[in-house]
Amino acid sequence: MFDSMNIKKEILSALHEMGFDEPTEVQKQAIPLGLEGKDIVVKSKTGSGKTAAFLIPILNSLENSERPGAMVIVPTRELALQVTDVAENIGRNLKIKTVTVYGGASINYQIREIRNGANIIVGTPGRVIDLIKRGELPTNSIRFLVLDEVDIMLDMGFIDDIKYILSRLPQKRQTMFFSATIPEEIKHITLKYTNDAVNVNVGSGEVTVDTIEHFYSIANGSDKFSVLLAYIDSKQPEKAIIFCKTQRNAERIYSMAQSMNLPAVLMHGGLSQNRREHSLNSFREGVKMLIATNVASRGLDIDNVSDIINFDAEEDPKAYVHRVGRSARMGKSGRAFTIFTPREKYLVYEIESYAKIKMTALEFDLAQYREKVKEFYKGDTRNYEDMAMRRRGFSHGGNFSRNRNTGRNFNGGRKNSFSGFNGKKFRHSYTKED
């Protein structure tokens, strides 16, 4: 019970109002250590309640005069906003202000918010460094540092950024690392930047995949879209995330869903932050399909996902496990379906070996779905014919990463516009931290 912990009554009251009376396992182990001021390294899977495990000790100790007194570093904008939301809810009865900083949003607005008095900074590595170098984010008063989803930051290439941030903070501080896995490089960092840290291991730390049914199909070119439609039609997912490698494929599927009146929202790094937040909220509140790039694969609090559909397969079996784990939160069961190209068929064996699972092949009669896809592409026969040629093993030599209107590749930081296949216009700005 939270009541048995040495927690301020204002925080206990907020937890009760939120309906949280019993701590999760990671909270039982990590909160008392955090309250004692210990450095901790916590290994626990996503969805286990890690956010409250580090925020409760911080909010319990932080004073309003400490500006800023705590910093929480996370890999993505969405996770930063999620952590801020939890901080504001748990600290609703305290005079503690949390400011979120991330790329792709107005840095001037974030600077004003910090100047107006920020007790907790929650941010992504690139924007935090930018603010530090501008002299707008003071670090000499930081007493608490949290690095959340550290293994994701390692995968995303943020380790040098993390080391820079750590080098700018006071040596006398409380440091808390939270991660689903602890690879060797993270072990070295925790040894160097913590003081007699206590290790907390809750479960295996890995995403549970043994409660998931794993399916796959082999398809190429336009047939991938046909297989996707066939799976949705046959399995009728209650709540599904469709993962794509590229923003362009995500846009294609979203356009197709719209044209067929399928309830779906879109999320990728090229969309504005408001659009991404709206998509997430809509999905949480009842829209059945979220079409996304890897920005949604880890760390986000999305419950009751029945199906994970990998329209584009990941080459790394670990990435597969983390993707499909979105459908097995808190021990729940789910389904995972992946579309492999013929050249990617070897990945079936690699995933089965790595995750110790069995993937079942699905075959569909695609005739009616090919007609639907062809009908969808009527307005742009070049694209349909190009994809059909690719299905048969040929190519026009075109590059699907190219914008047909401008002939330019989509590059970070550049804004591009192009026509969706239903004739709609989209406009995106691409940022580094996606």
Short description:
The chain is an alpha/beta fold and 434 residues long.
Structure commentary:
The chain is 38% helix and 17% strand. By secondary structure, it is of the alpha/beta class. It has two domains: 2-201, P-loop containing nucleotide triphosphate hydrolases (Rossmann fold); 212-429, P-loop containing nucleotide triphosphate hydrolases (Rossmann fold). The strands form three sheets. Strands 3-4-2-5-6-1-7 form a seven-stranded parallel β-sheet, sandwiched between helices. The protein has a seven-stranded parallel β-sheet with strand order 10-11-9-12-13-8-14, sandwiched between helices. The longest helix has 14 residues, at 77-90.
CATH architecture descriptor of the largest domain: 3-Layer(aba) Sandwich
Measured distance between first and last alpha carbons: 38 Å
**Tertiary shape:** elongated
Strand content: 15-25%
Defining traits:
Rossmann fold; 7-stranded parallel β-sheet; 2 domains; 434 residues; 38% helix; 16 helices; 16 strands; alpha/beta
Produce the secondary structure layout.
Blueprint lengths: L8 H9 L7 H11 L4 E4 L6 H12 L8 E4 L3 H14 L7 E4 L5 H9 L4 E4 L1 H9 L10 E5 L1 H6 L3 H9 L6 E6 L4 H10 L4 E4 L10 E7 L4 H13 L4 E4 L3 H13 L4 E4 L5 H13 L3 E4 L14 E4 L6 H8 L9 E7 L5 H10 L3 E3 L5 H10 L4 H11 L23 E5 L5 E5 L5
Parallel strand pairs: 1-6, 1-7, 2-4, 2-5, 3-4, 5-6, 8-13, 8-14, 9-11, 9-12, 10-11, 12-13
Antiparallel strand pairs: 15-16
Helix pairs in contact: 2-3, 3-4, 6-8, 10-15, 13-14
